[in-house]
């Protein structure tokens, strides 16, 4: 199995690079943000709860998020080649829970791909995405709160995973294809996994 965390600030390109990774390595994609937005669209109880936090740019409480992830791993990800975790973990307790969830399934986290992008570029990308997709939390006020939350609650994970020797530093500015090449090269060095042959 190959289990990868796609790590980075909001707007750093996690969704875009996840799509490349799942295609290239045939992995199962879990985007916690997408999962929550799907519940909001369907008007479920979880969606109503999640919406209160997401619209404020705040994180969903850890235990709720961890229970949701456990459930998805159980129902959807079993028997797959591995998982790309996109947007999870976002706090140290979530990171500790992830390692336990993987351990109890007899596997491990192999690498954390850290997309590093300057702050002004993040803001511009999210504003542009807001215009293109109408995503509700891509407005300047909520973007600023999300970036604060990222710095205070999520960024400590960079040191946490660096200390464990799992963090791969990627320059996330520039051309999507070149960023992906860098990810693929570093993943191969770290885990030995090879890209599928190009047709
Ligand atoms: P994303 O699509 O990953 O940018 O996530 C959008 C929003 O969903 C975030 O701003 C949070 O409110 C919520 N969210 C997504 N993933 C998590 C998580 N792992 N923990 C807590 N909240 C999350």
Structural account:
This protein has 199 residues and is of the alpha/beta class. The protein has one domain: P-loop containing nucleotide triphosphate hydrolases (Rossmann fold, 3-Layer(aba) Sandwich). 58% of the residues lie in helices and 12% in strands. A five-stranded parallel beta sheet has the order 2-3-1-4-5, sandwiched between helices. The structure holds adenosine monophosphate. Adenosine monophosphate (AMP) binds next to helix 2 and helix 3.
- Look at the structure and give the CATH class: Alpha Beta
Instruction: Provide the helix percentage.
Output: 55-70%
Q: What is the CATH architecture annotation?
A: 3-Layer(aba) Sandwich
Number of domains: 1
The fold-level CATH name is Rossmann fold
Mean pLDDT: 95
Strand order in space, largest sheet = 2-3-1-4-5
Give the termini separation. 24 Å
Total count of strands:
5
What is the rounded Rg? 16 Å
Please mark out the parts with pLDDT under 50 across 5 or more consecutive residues, or reply none: none
